[in-house]
Amino acid sequence: MFACLFAPDFPVQAALRLEPGPARAALQQSPVVILEGPASLLRVFAANENARQAGIEIGMTRLQVEACSRATLRKRSPAQEDAAQSALLDCARAFSPRVESTAPGTVVLDLTGTEKLFGLPQNAAAKIFLLAGEFGFDLNIAIAPNPDTALYTARGFAGVTIIPSGEEAKRLGPLLVAVLSPPLEVLEILECWGIRNLQSLGALPPVALVERLGQSGLHLQRLARGEIHRPLVPAAPATDFIESFEFDDPVETLESLVFILNRLLHQLCARLACRSLATNELRLKLELASWQKMAGRQDESYDRLWKLPFPMQDAKVLFRLAYLDLEDNTQSSPVKKLIVQVVPVKPRLSQSGLFAPPSPEAEQLEITLARVRGVTGAADQNGIACAGSPQVLDSHKPDSFSVRPFSTVTTKDADHSAPVPVLALRMFRPVLETSVETMDQKPRAVSLRKKRLRVLAASGPWRSSGHWWNAASAWKREEWDVALQTADGVGFYRIYLDRLRKQWFVEGVLD
Asked: Which among 276, 370, 271 has a CA at the least distance from the CA of 317?
């Protein structure tokens, strides 16, 4: 058995898919029109049934639509239609691995072998219908013994239709010939013959039909009888999960923006869940509309990327991360378009211990770090991130490190051998400026916290330098390890001379 998922008036449903359930249901009960073309001459590209009953036809101008009815007008967005088609495919993949993207708003899937999972065809159709509603679709669903019969049944009958084997011609009979989408000249010939439905087309003698219309006429007749069995052309799984929304009028308030953002994230997470995937990377892009454009200046934009420590599919956590960042970053212009993208990866599998105490949810770590960044800032004056895991850089420059996002991926096995005692250097941050007395080019006394301390022993110098080609980041220093006589006894310190600034510093104390 094959199932066909057909979304009537697909451009309209794609435009309304991101609306919340009650608002979407209210809009579908009223005339909705999709316009396309330049702003000066917008024309009707698609309309729902209520709009057609109000007298709106394809190709009418916007002024004509506004004159004949109070319809909801939306501008066509190819990006939204592509995302809606991908969402429809993801919905179908939750029920079968063999899915065909037949046409925009039309998907056919093979239900062979799924009886133990979903039961009878009626149960499978009911489950598909419920899941499609969560994705924002109002579908016609048909299940039949071959793909084409399921396709034309879904196009011709509303709701859920089940056709048992052997009843294809009988159930297809009342449909009009136009449902087969024949060439216009063939449709005119059949109309002249008085052939208006599939039952009449299927009753014609095949030989006489071939003599007059050729093999294309015989193919149409076999479609009308439900006799064609063809293999599906499987659609390649989408590698990019992108949802976007373009506002009719640019929005300035955060509340209007996050309302749509929350809906986009829920749609993306639902699509990931249907394919048993998660994401470890979230990208948010805002296209801003500048009211005062300079000559040759492009629109401003906001682009933010989150590297998550582990894969997740929790829309609430992702929304909280984006919300905290938007709350801390005020946009200079109203937002005209919102684009959200996630990178699909395999979900994280973990087994909790039966006797281990419950620990805080790991998903909350990123939210905590986002709040920390809101207080400290995302990076310091040197461009180093303020929150994350420190990593020593492969450089001879002292105190060179970076801060990277936390991750659950380990690069090597942990070393469980006994720790070896080492001498620790406790760094002063910031380093302490000092003055050093020298004798024979060796430190003799060091001023530390307004006290002159005598040098008992000194080791050095260790000279190092680097980045000589860049004056801003060049460094050149001379290090000494010294033993100083303090009031509490002997203290071991590391001092160095910045040879570029001609200044001595105390870097830390050896413990």
From this structure: 370
Residue 354 has pLDDT above 80, yes or no: no
- Give the lowest-confidence range in 95-99, 153-157, 204-208, 310-314: 310-314
Q: State the pLDDT at residue 493.
A: 92
Query: Is 80 exceeded by the pLDDT of residue 440?
Result: yes
List Cα–Cα distances, 457 to 35, 278, 445, 510, in angstroms.
84, 59, 10, 14
- β-pairing, 160-162 vs 140-144, is parallel
- The DSSP code for 204 is S
Which contiguous run of DSSP H or E holds residue 241? strand 241-251
What the chain holds in terms of domains, given with CATH numbers, is 2-78+102-165 (3.40.1170.60), 425-510 (no CATH)
CA distance 276 to 272: 6
How much of the chain exceeds pLDDT 70, in percent? 89
Q: What is the pTM of this model?
A: 0.70
**CB neighbours (10 Å) of residue 453?**
19
- For residue 56, the tally of other CB atoms under 10 A from its CB is 20
- Collect all residues with Cβ–Cβ distance below 8 Å to 338 and sequence separation of at least 6: 244, 245, 246, 247, 257, 260, 261, 264, 284, 285, 286, 287
Contact of 32 with 76, CB cutoff 8 Å: no
Distance, CA of 332 to CA of 306 (rounded, Å): 22
- The CA distance from 500 to 467, in Å, is 12
Q: Output 76 or 392, whichever has higher pLDDT.
A: 76
CB 286 within 8 A of CB 331: yes
pLDDT at 6: 94
DSSP structure class, residue 30: S
Among 406, 283, 293, 254, residue whose Cα is nearest residue 344: 283
Nearby residues of 445 by Cβ (< 8 Å), 6 or more positions away: 436, 437, 452, 453, 454, 455
DSSP-derived secondary structure for 257-281 = HHHHHHHHHHHHHHHHHHTT-EEEE
Q: Over the stretch 29-64, which tens digit does the pLDDT of each residue have? A: 888 999 998 888 899 999 988 888 888 889 998 888
> What pLDDT is recorded for position 39?
80
Distance of alpha carbon 355 from alpha carbon 487, whole angstroms = 52
Q: What DSSP line would sit under 89-103, residue for residue?
A: HHHHHTT-S-EEEEE
What number is the average pLDDT over the span 11-34? 85
Q: What is the DSSP string of 338-404?
A: EEEEEEEEPPP-----SSSPP---TTHHHHHHHHHHHHH-SB-TTS-BSSSEEEE-SSSSTT-EEEE
In terms of average pLDDT, the best of 323-332, 400-409, 457-466 is: 457-466
